Amino acid sequence: MGFRLSGVVQAKKLLRRSLSGSRQAANVPKGYFAVYVGENKTRFVVPVAYLNQPAFQELLSHAEEEYGFDHPNGGLTIPCSENEFSQLTSQLS
Q1: pLDDT value at residue 69
Q2: What InterPro entries does the annotation carry (predicted)?
Q3: Which helix (H) or strand (E) holds 14?
Q4: What gap in Å lies between CA 55 and CA 61, rounded to an integer?
Q5: Do residues 50 and 90 make contact, with C-beta atoms less than 8 angstroms apart?
Q6: Number of continuous H segments (helices) and E segments (strands) in the chain
Q7: 19, 21, 56, 86 - which has most CB atoms within 10 Å?
Q8: Using an 8 Å Cβ cutoff, are 21 and 74 in contact?
Q9: Which of 27, 31, 35 has the alpha carbon at shortest distance from 71?
Q10: Inter-axis angle of helices 82-92 and 54-67, to 10 degrees?
């Protein structure tokens, strides 16, 4: 149980760092966060509850490895295609 909790804490730290100073953060409803996905950096707004899901935590780990924490547009960029992301989020819903 402690391992899973530490994964959630790390995911929240990643999200907090990526969204700090974001201009578009005000456009996201409470309980949600924005991510950018795919080659065109399409913006998706997803529930914060996804941070508890192991599959989503894995995506965040890949995002950290590939892009780090400093994003020029202020949002979190996810390294997968829009179709893959849509399939994952539909399974999490």
Answers
A1: 64
A2: SAUR_fam
A3: helix 2-19
A4: 10
A5: no
A6: 3, 3
A7: 56
A8: yes
A9: 35
A10: 150
